[in-house]
Design a protein that fits this description.
It is a single chain. The protein is an all-alpha fold. The chain has three helices and no strands.
Length: about 80
Amino acid sequence: MFKLTEEIESKYRFVTLAALRAEQLQAGALPRVESASRKATVIAQQEVAEGAVAEWRPEQENVEGEVAAEEEGEED
């Protein structure tokens, strides 16, 4: 089991983020960390544990899937 980083406050968020990243790896994304494993799920967990993956929060996105302008500091 990997140790949770300070940014990830729960095991549920860790698992959810690792699952999303594992899907990306299976679709052909390149790993962001060196790993002895070839399994996408293990690599994804390692990436999340090392902080190589930014935490995704769906509540910060609008309907089209883009980050809201106020979150980025932009004004209309």
